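We both want to read discrete structure tokens more fluently, so let's practise on a single case. Would you supply a protein for us yourself, any chain you care to pick? Would you write everything just below, so we can both look at the same thing?
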Amino acid sequence: MPTERFFRLPDKKKEAVRTAAAKEFARALPEEASINRIIHDAEISRGSFYTYFQDKEDLLCWLVRDVIDRNLKYYIQRLKENNGDIWDVFEHVLENSILQVTSEGLNGLFANLIKSNSFSELFQRKMDEEKEITAVNQKFYDSMYEHLDRKLCPASREEFYSLMEMQMMVQMTALKRLFQMGLSREQVEAYYRGMIRILRYGICGKTDGN
């Protein structure tokens, strides 16, 4: 994750780094991305870059984690607004994720990240090693469960955490189909809705198409 020195930069300079990095990671696979291009476009020195980030993997983790964190805030915000209806959250969260990624011009970045299996493994390992991130994730799950309407989803805390993990896996698979496999948004959303329906009702629990 970025150093404190990076976070103390003016917003304009941080945005320049973000924009330059997003552009480069969209141009090339993560392992082929050029730090030189990033620092040139961001108008910072190579020395400054290494006072902000350990390496380009660190920079990419920050970019992606920032998107994830804002997406997690959407989960909680919508759950509070709909009085704990987790199924309503699940129905809309994929649309929010796609809108967030496309509106910020990050389609190419996520497509390249998904294509790079070795880099995806490295990214996941770096995320798992961050104790602060683990604490944030735990706080997120706890907050979601506290706001959950357990009449609509009568799950124990452990069952609910498993449900959240399964939903996120389905969402990541849907995004992979969109950004890597090139399926249409309609196809991806239909796949996602079908999988969420199974999570809610079970494979044989609902047969009327609702």
